[in-house]
Design brief:
- By secondary structure, the protein is α/β, with parallel strands linked by helices.
- The protein has 3 domains: about 140 residues, Ferritin (Up-down Bundle); about 70 residues; about 250 residues, Alpha/Beta hydrolase fold, catalytic domain (Rossmann fold).
- Strands 1-2-4-3-5-6-7-8 form an 8-stranded mixed beta sheet, sandwiched between helices.
- It is globular.
- The protein starts with 8 loop residues before the first helix and ends in a 16-residue tail after the last helix.
């Protein structure tokens, strides 16, 4: 804690300004020397007596040799500027550390001056507020130093490599960019050939750009030349592929490129991790544990990436698939669109529930493919796309000893990510109809997202819901034009009963609200078989015999298709609610 640390700001914000200043002087001196050499070469005169083509060739050669000194001079100048910025930030941070120390000592004095008897609630709150303020000041100062150091390191690495940047690009690399708008403007000003090297020098630009809202990203992207867009896809596929606001077909190209490389790296890592430990000397228990952990992590990463790859496979007679996202998480999260999000008139985001993960993307994408196909059958006059979204860390099964499915934490975290997806779709494809279909714990996640979203979806469909948090006990609390819910008949787990054996269990938790309850106010539909199709017999979305919530011949899929194509009045209503 701050109170147990030195009261010397140099300890709290380490660094050597003197060494940095020495380095700055060295870089500047080398830059001056390079410029002197360039100028000296341009002033060399043609030797007396040379005639014919010799003087022209000599002059041309001198010009070429002199020009080679310019990139060196420019890179050294930019590097010294980066160090100067870091030095200035370090000095500022030291001052801030001093302020933090004074604030902390002020809190200590206030605590010491209090009576020996328990302090009043107000006095204790004041002391705690001062301590939190001290921590906040120090954390902010340390963060700014880290950012400035990373930025300087990137520029210096590029300067050392001396890439063939244009003079204008070198000037832009050294600019002080601190806002997302400035980062977008800088990248937009670069030629396609300079983008790769500038991003290598300034990785902070990527982080800044990701702070822009999707609408601004879309405007920035469309302002770039096609050559610059292609350069970014090639040089930074992971960045472009997950940047909300970039057209989805472009993200598909970038993400497929990133996926290929990541899968190749994962296969290599798996091969390395599978190598047995040497027998001599015998490995320690700690080495065995670390070896197993590495092997498990490598297998999880590889299986997830394979799952995403397999999820992209489709039959010729089905809608094409697009890799909308594959995150840098280990293992990654991902989203695959069945149908083109850039051109679809009707878009549905499908959110899976408990145990969903990228490794199982093939199965989730197949279920979403069935929904997209049914929508097309019901509404053939429009184009449809369904986004198989595994964009959050879903809870594991309680059978594995993980009880997080009974809480709201993972749903709340997932809701933040889901909302980003909805905001991006609204910004890029605002004219399209937008729906959300969510299963099990995914409906918990989606309900939280829609309760706090600025985007109003046209329909929200909850199937086999694990329940909503207590505060979301009315359909009108969700930002959706129409709310639908369907659930198979009650079944008891593990005894072979047909019906949904798990949804009601999920609601014996921190999210007890049942969206199929009459008082909730959703439009409930039947999934137990009838003219619209066969009955759902399990909690899952697909079963080997085709009786899951999203299987092709079920009444459930037919009703979901109706609800998400503007034909909600045609759904087959649910029977009487009980339990």
């Amino acid at each position: 804690m701050l109170g147990s640390m030195s009261t010397d700001p140099a300890v709290l914000v380490p660094g050597s300004p003197a060494s940095i200043d020495t380095a700055i002087r060295g870089w500047k001196a080398r830059a001056d020397h390079a410029e002197e050499n360039r100028l000296a070469l341009t002033k060399l005169a043609v030797p007396d007596g040379w005639q014919g083509s010799a003087p022209v060739a000599f002059t041309d050669h001198l010009r070429k040799v002199a020009s080679t000194w310019m990139p060196l001079q420019q890179s050294l100048t930019v590097a010294s500027g980066a160090l100067q910025e870091y030095s200035s930030t370090l000095a500022w941070a030291r001052d801030q550390a001093g302020v933090a120390i004074d604030t902390w000592l002020q809190a200590q004095r206030a605590e010491e001056q209090a009576p020996l008897l328990p302090t009043t609630q107000a006095a204790a709150a004041e002391v705690e507020a001062l301590r939190e303020k001290a921590w906040s000041i120090l954390r902010h100062a340390q963060s700014r130093v880290t950012e400035a150091g990373d930025r300087a390191a990137g520029i210096i690495r590029t300067a050392a490599a001396q890439p063939e940047l244009t003079p204008e690009a070198w000037q832009r690399v050294g600019e002080n960019v601190s806002t997302p708008e400035q980062a977008a403007a800088l990248l937009a000003s670069l030629s396609a050939s300079d983008i790769d090297d500038v991003l290598a020098a300034r990785p902070d630009l990527v982080a800044l750009l990701q702070q822009l809202d999707p609408a601004a990203i879309n405007r920035w992207w469309t302002s770039l030349s096609v050559a610059a867009q292609n350069a970014l896809v090639i040089s930074s596929p992971g960045f472009v592929g997950n940047l909300e606001g970039v057209p989805y077909t472009t993200r598909d190209k970038a993400n497929r490129r990133a996926l290929t490389q990541r899968l190749k790296d994962a296969e290599h890592e798996m091969a390395d991790a599978e190598r047995p430990l040497p027998d001599s000397p015998p490995p320690t228990a700690e080495q065995i544990r670390e070896h197993q952990e590495r092997l498990d992590a490598a297998r999880e990463e590889r299986d997830a990436l394979r799952g995403v790859r397999d999820g992209l496979e489709t039959d010729r007679d089905r809608a094409p698939r697009y890799l909308v996202s594959v995150t840098s998480d280990h293992p990654p999260l991902a989203a695959i669109s069945i149908g083109n999000l850039d051109t679809a008139d009707n878009i549905t985001v499908a959110v899976p529930g408990m145990t969903s993960e990228a490794a199982a993307m093939r199965a989730w994408a197949a279920s979403c493919d069935e929904l997209q196909r049914r929508q097309t059958e019901l509404d053939g006059g429009r184009q449809h796309a369904v986004l198989a979204w595994i964009g959050y860390k879903a809870p594991a099964s309680p059978a594995e000893g993980d009880l997080s499915v009974f809480g709201n934490t993972l749903a709340s975290q997932g809701a933040v990510e889901l909302n980003k997806t909805l905001v991006a779709l609204d910004a890029v494809r605002g004219e399209a109809t937008l729906n959300v279909v969510a299963h099990s714990y995914g409906s918990t996640t989606a309900a939280i997202a829609l309760s706090d979203s600025t985007v109003r979806v046209d329909s929200f469909v909850a199937i086999g819901s694990a329940g909503f948090p207590t505060e979301l006990n009315q359909a009108n609390e969700l930002n959706a034009e129409a709310v639908y819910a369907g659930e198979a008949r009650f079944a008891i787990p593990f005894i072979g009963m047909n019906g949904d054996e798990l949804a009601w269990v999920g609601r014996t938790s921190d999210h007890p609200v049942d969206p199929t309850h009459p008082l909730f106010g959703a439009r409930t539909f039947s999934v137990d078989g009838g003219d619209g199709g066969i009955a759902v017999t399990r909690h899952v979305t697909t079963t080997p015999d085709g009786t899951g919530y999203l299987d092709a011949s079920t009444e459930s899929l037919n009703n979901i298709g109706l609800a998400t194509t503007g034909r909600g009045t045609e759904i087959s209503p649910a029977g009487l609610w009980f339990f």
